[in-house]
From TrEMBL:
GO CC aspect terms: membrane
Pfam families the UniProt entry points to: HMA
Statement: the UniProt record of this protein carries the keyword Transmembrane helix: no
Taxonomy, superkingdom: Eukaryota
Protein name: HMA domain-containing protein
Organism for this UniProt entry: Solanum lycopersicum (Tomato)
Amino acid sequence: MGVGGTLEYISEMMSIEKPKKKKKQFNTVELKVRMDCEGCEMKVKNTLSSMSGVKSVEINRKQQKVTVTGYVEPNKVLKKAKSTGKKAEIWPYIPYNLVSQPYAAQAYDKKAPPGYVRRVDQYPTTGTVARYEDPSYVNMFSDDNPNACSIM
């Protein structure tokens, strides 16, 4: 093998050994960040804008909401927002019309923006509402049969 053949062999081996980078997906990350003034707002915006892959940063100080769009991962955006010294979390609210019981104790939050409730699990493990699968409980108080009430 000559010098040209050796270089070709080395370049082939290098191209095989290079790990391919995983392409990040375009995401929209919503955060709740505690901001009191324009200085806080600018600090958060500048910090998040400096991340690689970020296309835009929108801030609604009244709702304490930051929306970051770009080729970023939500956990990294959250970590970067916390690095500013501000209290930050993933946006915990969803529109109230997407929840079956928006005024249940788990979902209702006085601090939520208008039209939003706290994001909760579909089937809470602990709650005040009992769900029975036994049909005898359902038929105990029947409107079709007024004499069906067995408690009286």
